[in-house]
Amino acid sequence: MLLENKVCVITGGTSGIGLGTVERFVELGAKVVIGDIQDERGREIADRLGVNAHYVHADVTQESEIEALVAEAVSCFGRLDVMFNNAGDGGDRAGMTEIGAEGFDRSMSLLARSVLLGHKFAARQFIAQGGGGSIISTASAAGIEGGWSSAAYTTAKHAVVGIVHQAVAELAAHGIRSNAISPGVIATPIMTRTFGVPMEENERFLDFLSDRIGHTQPLQRLGRPRDVAGAAVFFASDLSEYVTGVNLPVDGGATAVTQGSFAIDVVAAAAEFPA
Ligand SMILES: NC(=O)c1ccc[n+]([C@@H]2O[C@H](COP(=O)([O-])OP(=O)(O)OC[C@H]3O[C@@H](n4cnc5c(N)ncnc54)[C@H](O)[C@@H]3O)[C@@H](O)[C@H]2O)c1
Predict the structure, then answer these.
(1) Residue 232 falls within a domain, yes or no?
(2) Ligand 1 pocket check: which of 89, 109, 194, 226 to mutate, most ligand atoms within 8 Å of Cβ?
(3) Does residue 17 contact residue 183 with C-beta atoms inside 8 Å?
(4) Is residue 223 part of a domain?
(5) Per-residue pLDDT tens for 193-222?
(6) How far is residue 37 CA from its own chain's centroid?
(7) Which of 6, 57, 72, 211 has the fewest CB atoms nearer than 10 Å to its CB?
(8) Is 188 helix (H, G, I), strand (E, B) or coil?
(9) What is the pLDDT of residue 40?
């Protein structure tokens, strides 16, 4: 029971990566407060998981709702040990020559500002109670390289990594750790929504994507929420008590190698060099 009695807040915990992490954390002994905007699903999930799971409506684009979410975790379970800033969507999909200020700001407020404010309120609580704490944030392969997503999403996910680095500078002396997880392509409803496929077709669409592109990932399959949850367990648990400021890719190896044809092109060009 790696997470026995650890009180954890998980945003975006009613779907995909967040839900997979909520389930894994509860299995491992944690007490979990889920913050999300899908209230009916959230309440069903909390009921199914029992006394160690609690749902709170929290729109992470609203500062007051993040503050209230942390306060609710403390009033429900007495303290806070782990804050997982995970909620998100696909962001504004416009390209650089099309993006408008409003779409960019909306993407940043959901994908980056929420992570900063999650740090703010979790760190205040950790400092007040003493003994440090762990903050985990979902970045992305798009926070490591360009080309995985749109300009707004890529900018926001790079910002998440910046927040994690700054958190080390400002919070490590309080024993507060902050780490990011960067998923590659994980089969979750974010894909279904991003590509405008009706949610009734979610499973069929994700199976289709896995068949079509799973083999393009170095480990030969798409990721699953449980793969990301495993990394979150590490950062939430005392196994990582000397680890902070890390951005851990959970991407089947994708960001370690070039996905393009540069290497092949160089070999082909070199072979054509006139002797
Ligand atoms: N699936 C992937 O391939 C992938 C890759 C890299 C990063 N990510 C990141 O992982 C995180 C989780 O995404 P997912 O793939 O599980 O998608 P998902 O759509 O399955 O889950 C996202 C969750 O966030 C919630 N949410 C959305 N807006 C919110 C708001 N304003 N306030 C509170 N909750 C809100 C949704 O209701 C949902 O439960 C996101 O930050 C996403 O950017 C996903």
Answers:
(1) yes
(2) 89
(3) yes
(4) yes
(5) 988 999 999 999 999 999 999 999 999 999
(6) 16
(7) 211
(8) coil
(9) 98
